Amino acid sequence: MNAIQIDGKAIAGALRASVARDVALLKAECNVSPGLAVVLVGDDPASSVYVKTKAKQATAAGIRSQQFGLPNDVSEAELLNLIDDLNADDAIDGILVQLPLPGHINGGRVLEAIDPKKDVDGFHPYNVGRLAIGRPALAPCTPLGVMHLIKTVVSDLNGLDVLVIGRSNIVGKPLAVLLGDAGCTVTAAQIQTRKLGELCRKADIVVAAAGCAGLVRGDWLKRGAVVIDVGINRAIDSDGDAKLVGDVAFAEASKRASHITPVPGGVGPMTVAYLLSNTVSAAVWRRGLSLKVSHPVHHIRPLNHREGVRAG
Ligand code: GUN
């Protein structure tokens, strides 16, 4: 059996198109035009590419996008001043500070300075806490993207066993909450987990988000498992060329899984699409608006502009 590849690029494209329709609806019904501020400190090449992609796709969806590039040696106070200005700016609905930040800046302090209602990354403790207790919240983009991909191939998540490998604040921890809310029995593992392969063999769905190239082997998988690979690792192929690989040994895993995401072209595009979705959610939430549905709902617990969210 060869697994069916889950086409994250196409699914993200459809989501971005639905966000663009919601942006148009928001303008037509409420005269609101969502604005996103993307802040990049320093000139890390990978971060620069991510930030450009985010800004470009926001603009394509009709979201007003502003980029703020700060030098690597900017002081924490200067960065906090910029965030204060963006918090106070009524034309800005979403604020994203690209991570990682340089070592002299306290990342936690910076993320906590962002107005939680403009926190389109869902990293502020206010949103983290509300997500954990089932209150409307802006949820992190990658876990929302993973949930969406899973739901394209699994119609009923209730009662399924899911192994999440990796316990980061950005992916593993919030994803475990979302999966639990969807009725899954979630095992939160990490690289150090003993007998990871044995745990993996019991899982109906495996999400690899450990940042370790090729960690999940083909013979770790139950036949017919759904495999979502969040890893993005740089590797050198047999011709000596640089390439991106995931946390899953893709060729082996494809022989056992029923569905699998490729790297690149799986989870990555979904993260950016949900940033756009969260920007619309934030615009709706902050203003206490209710937006009529233009597209089916994909995520359950988190704040969802398509359900019409009221400030709570
Ligand atoms: N760096 C890597 N992933 C992310 C993300 O999802 N958001 C931000 N702000 N920075 C990141």
* CATH architecture label of the largest domain: 3-Layer(aba) Sandwich
Give the oligomeric state of the chains in this entry, treating copies of one chain as homo and distinct chains as hetero.
Answer: single chain
Strand portion, in percent?
Answer: 15-25%
Q: Ranges with pLDDT <50 over ≥5 residues?
A: 293-303, 306-312
**First CA to last CA: what distance?**
48 Å
CATH class of the largest domain: Alpha Beta
CATH fold group of the largest domain: Rossmann fold
- Globally, the shape reads globular
Q: List all distinct small molecules, including ions and cofactors, that are bound in this structure.
A: guanine
Q: What characterizes the major β-sheet?
A: 6 strands, parallel
User: What is the strand tally?
Assistant: 11
Structural class: alpha/beta
Individual helix count:
10
